[in-house]
Design brief:
A five-stranded mixed beta barrel has the order 1-3-4-6-5. By secondary structure, it is an alpha+beta fold. The radius of gyration is 17 Å and the shape is globular. It has one domain: OB fold (Dihydrolipoamide Acetyltransferase, E2P), CATH 2.40.50. Helices cover 15% and strands 47% of the residues. Strand 3 (22-35) and strand 4 (41-53) form a beta hairpin. The two termini are 26 Å apart.
């Protein structure tokens, strides 16, 4: 089981499989700060690939945008493929079982809570940290 809290580095990449299953890919940044041996503050950002399916994928596509703060719970999955040059490639991603939206809407409710929320464009405007004066919390 993997659990992370971070911010989306770009808008959600949403599509449907040939069988009609909704799939959303998210790129989430987590950060940490520490002081090195010389007393210098060091900031480190780690990027995570997340894939969500079904209703979770649809909700991510409808309510999340670049800069959104999210909690993701899922399992690690490594995929293997062959690129155009014939080289075997690997990628490790988190297969999301739960995605919780942590940004707040104007009415004090978490995004996606209760009733159907605003469409993606409205959610994007409401969760823009630059407009909220909260740029210090973005890890990138």
């Amino acid at each position: 089981m993997v659990q992370i809290i971070g911010r989306l580095g770009r808008d959600v990449d949403h599509r449907y499989s040939q069988g009609g299953t909704a799939i959303s890919n998210l790129s989430i940044a987590t950060d940490e700060s520490y002081t090195d041996r010389d007393g210098n503050k060091v900031d480190r950002v780690e990027w995570h690939r997340i894939v969500a399916y079904g209703k979770t994928a649809v909700n991510c596509a409808n309510f999340l945008a670049k800069g959104s703060l999210v909690y993701v719970e899922g399992s690690l999955q490594t995929r293997k493929w062959t690129d155009q040059q014939g080289q075997e490639r690997f990628t490790t991603e988190i297969k999301a079982q739960r995605v919780q939206f942590l940004d707040r809407r104007g009415d004090g409710q978490p995004q996606g809570a209760g009733q159907q929320g605003p469409p993606r464009q409205q959610a994007r405007r409401q969760s823009n940290p630059a407009q909220d004066g909260d740029m210090d919390t973005i890890p990138f």
